[in-house]
Amino acid sequence: MNTALWIVAGVLAFVFVGSGVMKLVLSKEKLVAQGLGGLDDVDPNAIRGIGAAEVAGAIGLIVPPLVHILPVLTPLAAVGLAAVMVGAIVTHGRRKEYPNVAVNVVLLGLALFVAWGRFGAYAF
């Protein structure tokens, strides 16, 4: 189970670092042009905040247990990413962007799996 939790955390970290860095470094116009049209009416500072939360969550999934400093941050990071996904599900659902909702539901499930495992019997 520990291996499965590490793999899922790694997949989540990969996805959220990519998504978060993109939101941090690209302008809103470039994000919309790349297919993130749902961000068209979102404040640029909110986009950057979401990107920062995604990158911080991704780092929190991997780094603390690797360096053996505050590994309790790993399940907390997973909960934070789950909260970001709940917001994404609500936002995409209101816009009837159902394929995005499906992806967000999968990411939510994976984040909750890591939180459950690292808060529970498979904590560091």
Automatic annotation (TrEMBL):
It comes from the Bacteria. It comes from Mycolicibacterium mucogenicum DSM 44124. InterPro entries: DoxX. It holds the Pfam family DoxX_2. The lineage of its organism: Bacteria, Bacillati, Actinomycetota, Actinomycetes, Mycobacteriales. This is DoxX family protein. It is a multi-pass membrane protein. One of its GO terms (cellular component) is membrane. Keywords: Membrane, Transmembrane, Transmembrane helix. The chain crosses the membrane at residues 6-26, 69-89, 101-119. It is found in: Membrane.
